[in-house]
Design goal:
Layout (H helix, E strand, L loop, with lengths): L1 E9 L6 H13 L4 E3 L4 E4 L2 H16 L4 E9 L7 H14 L8
Antiparallel strand pairs: 1-3, 1-4, 2-3
Helix pairs in contact: 1-2
Length: about 100
Amino acid sequence: MLLSFSITPLGVGESVGEYVADAVRVVRGSGLPNRTDAMFTTVEGDWDEVMAVLKAAVDAVQARAPRVSVVMKADVRPGVENALTKKVADVEAYLADPGRRLDS
């Protein structure tokens, strides 16, 4: 399962980077494969693992912010592993060779 999420502290002013860093520390400390970009953090694992990481990340931000907003999207595909890197690699391969069929 891939879970992409954005955690935004509310009521703390415009600069929220230090609060978001609290959440990212939790994700990186989880030991699960993960990636953070400018808008979302994505973590890969089974349902219980990724939801536990999401809860812990929200709890870390909520410890310092009066309100927390969470946006998430999940790709639930039992038995699929390494989707975090494979999906991007497939797109990059197609960009490098548009005539290539990725499923071959």
